[in-house]
Give the backbone structure.
Amino acid sequence: MINLAIFASGSGSNFDAIVHAIEKGELDANVSLLVCDRVGAPVIEKAQRYEVDTVVFTPKVYNGKAAYEEALLADCRDREIDYIILAGYMRLIGPTLLKPYENRIINIHPSLLPAFPGKDAIGQAVSKQVKITGVTVHFIDDGMDTGPIIDQEAVRIEDTDTEEDVKRKIQAVEHELYPKVIQSLLVKEDAK
């Protein structure tokens, strides 16, 4: 069985979607670990409900990014993690994790990259009054939302849509697309 570690910082809606896909038999993997960098983030409670091992790291207590990522890497190795899945994890990944998990760290972003990278992609799309935005699943590299694109899906923005409407549309697509893309990667891995 493929072991996943999900890194998240917030509400955990994509965490939920991935676990539900596993429960429904649509994703052949095991969520072995939740890594969270915010004490009290709602995703922690979700992980507890699903009985997923959880570690909460406060980056400020470490002597730099490399030391913080060494601690994350140790937990991932202890649990034999095959893939790291970023689900609203609001930190750039450094070489300490990138090298051992090359092409095995996956992120989901609420825009059609390369448009609107970084924070508040939905707000950026709404303020620019674009008609099409979307969702991108990509591998992580050392840039911000610059890694190779795995898949994308478009979302239309109507003139009457508020930012909250767009967010709901984006999340609905994310919750379907992310588990499917992860499963397709695992199938390709199995075929090797």
The longest helix spans residues 163-191. The chain has one domain: 3-191. Helices lie at 13-23, 42-49, 65-78, 95-98, 121-127, 163-191.
